[in-house]
Amino acid sequence: MKTITRRNFVRDSIAAGVVATGVTSASHGADAPLRNEAVKIVAVSCSPRQGQATATSLRACLDAAALVSPRIKTELIELAGRKINGDLAAGIPLEPGQKDDFPALIPKLTDPKVRGIIIGTPVYFGNMSSLCKAFLDRWMAFYRDNLALADKVGGVLAVGGTRNGGQEATIQSVQVSLFCQEMIVVGNGRPHSRFGATLWSGIEGGVTKDEFGMTTARNLGHRVAETALRLPS
């Protein structure tokens, strides 16, 4: 007689559910049959310094995403040099002559082909950059517009000046905004599933020498792409 244990019960219940519903790993695989449309992953660097550690880390993230499937297309958007006024989220109008670059980003994020959005930010005093906060505050436009980002896959990457410089706390802070948009928020996946990608820019030689951090960046890109491919068209 087979001994019933919690492990066996869970395993057998899952197996029974798979048989009953006809769901197989093949039918829900990353490249399920008859699904050949392009899937786009957009990464947004919220660092005020263009082309530096945050952007470099996001490129590694996107490179890993692209390896998941030929269907994956990627784009890196850097907010450095752009004017993003967070006050507009509260309805405060621009002063005469002021410029705001957020409206130009709206179609890039709401495009139906965009199934995944990865936010990258440097860590300042244990939290996201002011540019990142202003950018996410402006997402009020998506919240009001029937949650235009709902069901897109979201991931977060944070770059700190020290190994344990508040990266995970920063990631969680950004994730709150993604949850409010009803996005599907994922971490960096197995084998060491965490909140997201945590990188160290202060290491000698720069962020690319942070082997652990770059691994989390690549894992995050892989996880976002893998999940995005599983979404219905």
From TrEMBL:
GO terms for molecular function: oxidoreductase activity. It comes from the Bacteria. It holds the Pfam family FMN_red. The keyword DNA damage does not apply. Residues 39-189 form the NADPH-dependent FMN reductase-like domain. InterPro entries: Flavoprotein-like_sf, FMN_Rdtase-like_dom, ISF_SsuE-like, TAT_signal. Keywords: Flavoprotein, FMN. PROSITE patterns: TAT (PS51318). This is Flavodoxin family protein.
